[in-house]
Amino acid sequence: MKITPPFELLDAPFALTDDQIFRFREDGYIKLKDVLAPDLLAHYGPIITEKVKELNRESRSMSERDTYAKAFLQIMNLWEHSDDVKAFVLGKRLARIATELLGTRGVRLYHDQALYKEPGGGYTPWHVDQVYWPLSNNNTVTAWIPLTKITQDMGPLEFSVGSQEIKFGRDMVISDESEKAIDQHLKFSDRRVDSGPFDLGEVSFHYGYTFHRAGPNVTNRPREVMTIIYMDSEMQLIAPKSQNQHKDWDSWCPSAKIGEVIQTPKNPLIYTRK
Length: 274
What we know:
The chain is α+β, with helices and mostly antiparallel strands. It has helices at 6-9, 18-27, 38-55, 67-71, 83-89, 92-102, 176-188, 243-252; strands spanning 29-32, 73-76, 106-116, 124-127, 140-146, 157-160, 193-194, 203-207, 212-214, 225-232, 269-272. This is Phytanoyl-CoA dioxygenase. One of its GO terms (molecular function) is 2-oxoglutarate-dependent dioxygenase activity.
């Protein structure tokens, strides 16, 4: 029997159904099983983990950190530091799913980030991602990619179903305050929360304005997750509305110009429809 090399699996198509696309657009997120093969994760997971260890600069104990720093080790744009990680991040399989879910012509990379919740790591407060992004439309999606099976007690990602339409809290950065205020609003709105674990190979995709959070990791194992943030291939840069958005412009698309399509060397076109 022929064994497919892991790197070839990065570009292999994944068959989305019309119902899955509909559910994503209605609910603001979707969890898809068997997106990435165990062999692929067994190959690339340790590579990503080693790069996280190499690039990590957090040395404080948990007791010395604030809520954000307790939530996870956050290492950005690993693809610029490793050819192997670059192959993973620029793979067409996930990018094609993102394109079909969004209904765009194609997608570019906004940036990647590893989110490793350490043993004993704290909760991740309710928030939306796009508060940080100086982008012209809502056609953004984050692929949340567990590199191992994520059990409930490791702090899997939780989603507020259909919350991408909520305007309240969109201007709140991730914090204890966002956790309290958004949680109260979602409970008042009687929003259902999907907080289940992730099987090996399962990947979630959520809009930039979908509210999400994660519980603490109460195990003795790290919650190893890679994320890739995709944006509409025709996305334009807008004038930053905050210091955080200005920082993102400087960090992730520094040569982009306001009012023009973001197509810098840091934002390669990953997938486009034929």
